[in-house]
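Worked example (supplementary).
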Amino acid sequence: MTITRRQFLKYCSVAAGAIGLTSTDLLKLEKALALEGGLRVIWIQGQTCTGCSVSLLNSAMYATVQELLVTPPASSTLDVDYQVTIMSGTDTVATAAANPATGTYVLVCEGAVPTGASGEYCEIAGTINGIGSSPVTYQRAVTYLGTHANCYAVIALGTCASFGGIPAAKPNPTTSKSVIGSNSGLRTKTINIPGCPPNPNWIVGTIAYILSNNLSLPSLDRLRRPVMYYGERICNNCDRFINNKDNFIGIGSDGSLSRVKLPDQIGSTRNAVNGYCLKKVGCKGSRTKSDCSLRKWHSPGYGQLGVNWCVGAGSPCLGCVQENFPDRFSPFFHIS
Amino acid sequence: MATTRLLDPITRIEGHMAVNVTANSSTNVITGVDVEGTMFRGFELIMKNRNPRDVSFLTQRICGV
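After joint prediction of all chains, the assembly is encoded as:
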């Protein structure tokens, strides 16, 4: 699977606003893309539902499946060498593409890392070149491919890879951990892009940033998430909050609202249709940092913002981009 | 003479799968096939003692394809 330089650049320039690139970034991006060879990606999957892959494939970047799968001969930019959901080869034909010795690469890890039973709760391949044991556990692959000298960044994609997510929820039967949690040596080169799933623009935008800044990482917060996407609380830009802010006295430092005069029945037509705040029915937006409320989801085409999002559809925010999701955010609904 | 061949990973599916094929190398007849799902999360165990209203939000994440 290769995305042509032209497709990528076209997408980035039209979507620059949506993915948070300035015009200077775009100039730098064009320079970076003029370089020979592409950004080589080895994409491995552990305890995942493949939703993160599907989210990227749903990106408005691709109009057809053909665009995605047909390999153009030259001027490639994003060169996904190994991605088991969409690649055509099987067995050793497939894993030969994941050889770390071939050249520098970015490792994309999707899914939590089970560390129980010596990692045998998830085996990703019979053999991968350079990894001695067979079959290869996900835990071993993350450590080997992530610490390899040819790997200059690790992208922990999705809440599972970033923080453990649902596989690591109580009672954590497989002793699942995040990518950094499974190997603290990876911390300095890991970018977490949490979300269940992450918005495709967060993924594409982060890759675009790396390409346009001489392969350096974007500014990251305490949880190693890109600040440009995970900088503000959901409520700050939420229509439901802004429409009803006269009804609030304020948000405390712990995210609690001190006074709410709003309907508190989940599913009531007043809540859904009139756009009232969903705090009282369990919305976790005040404890969640992401730009969902501005960017929204299901972008209908190049460079357009999405059409809707969870809270817009009347469902309380679950806090899926946060650490300790889902345990710390349960129950999702408050029903009186 | 029986030979076995492990095909791992199987691609273009959601999830993790491996196929172990046993064949008779002189007659080219396949004598056995084992299909393995090579990933376990324990969703059933994670769902225990949870608020029932949360569960649909979690089980929908079993498969994202």
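Two points are worth noting when inspecting this output. The radius of gyration of chain A is 21 Å. Chain A has two domains: 2-229, 232-336.
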